[in-house]
Amino acid sequence: MPVGYHPRSMQPLRTKKAQKLPRLRTPLVREGGVLRPATWDEALDRAAAGIRRGVDRHGPASFGLFSCSKATNEVNYAAQKFIRAAIGSNNIDSCNRT
Length: 98
Hints:
Layout: H1 16-20, E1 28-31, E2 34-37, H2 40-58, E3 65-67, H3 73-87, E4 92-94
């Protein structure tokens, strides 16, 4: 076991709640306050529209991204490129300080 790791952190998630809940196999969208199954295209279009609506309403500085220092340089580069080019925000941070 690596130094500094607690034995519990090396084990898979085994909570009672996680064992009882089935995994989602299709995305869900909220319509009229009720969740219903949707296609991936519809779910992604709704997510993109929600992000765009928030940026349009509150400005790009209201949007931020938290990246992971354990991800590859390529993944972190793509994340910062997305937030800067697609959203127009410089609000990106990672957990490098921890």
